[in-house]
Amino acid sequence: MLQETKANTVLGWLKRPKSLVFLTFLLVSFILWLLIKLTQIYSYSVSYDVVYKNLPKNKLFLNPPSTRVNVLVEANGFRLLKTNLIDEKASIDLSKVRSHSNKWFLLSNDIETQLKEQYRDIEIKQVLTDSIVFDLGVNKKKKVPVVSNVEINFKTDYGLVDSLIISPSEIWILGPDGLIDSIHYVSTQDMVLKNVQSDIDIETSLSQPDSLSSIEFELKEVNIRGKVNRFSEKMIKVPLLIENVPEGTKVRTFPQQINVICRAPIQNLKLISPDNFLIVADYKEVQEGGGYLIPKLVKKPSNIKEVKLMQTKVEFLLKKEW
């Protein structure tokens, strides 16, 4: 009840003409006082976030540079209010960076000059931050091959027709020269493909360990493709050719043909014949072979993935021709 009485008293007072005049006068006085304060000049310290630009193309930061600069400025209250309301950033141009004995730096005077060009509505009185020192290294570019770390487990009787194709097979890397020189390849992330029985076509990320965090890769992913087919085996008999037989001598081998096991896609096996192979034994190597001829595969069809000779040693008889 008491609170209601007080509220009615206040409302009654506000409705009086003299009260409204008083409040209007009070509001106008406050606005005038605020305008006077905002038009006055103040000195104050400002801490700006720093944004670096125009780093020389052949240089890079080996360590993060300073991210803030403290400045003593002088400006009116309006400008001070703007500074407090807006997160302003100081742009530092590194095309004007100084160097001495492999040290890179900007003096406080250099920073002050740049800030004066950037903030023309503020009087820069003094840069409170000491000179900024930069840890810069030489930026080097190099092309390296991409190596696959994809493990493929095929379904029984299936396999790759040809080698995996990585696209692109090489990428550009960019970074500190000392580190770039130590990198000879980049690899994909570890991946396991299970029970594969169809063609492979995947996108996989490149592996970039923490030790290479300062290295910039041209690409983050590569494509890996491979043609997969069902494989079978076929055995054919291929005549054995003997080389370097002494003049006036005839060599008879046992057997005269070598059994060859071929493993390849079924459609490729249908196309092969003994004429597609060449197996040779060199008579000059008889002593090294311990009295045996050693058959060697010299030629095979390019579309046959695996070839195995069932005879690795061949007995022979030597006969003089009269």
From TrEMBL:
Keyword check for Transmembrane helix: yes
Pfam families in alphabetical order: YbbR (PF07949)
Coiled coil: none
Protein name per UniProt: YbbR-like protein
Taxonomic lineage: Bacteria, Pseudomonadati, Bacteroidota, Flavobacteriia, Flavobacteriales
Species assigned in the record: Zhouia amylolytica
Keywords: Membrane, Transmembrane, Transmembrane helix
PANTHER family: CDAA REGULATORY PROTEIN CDAR
Entry's transmembrane regions: 20-36
Domain of life: Bacteria
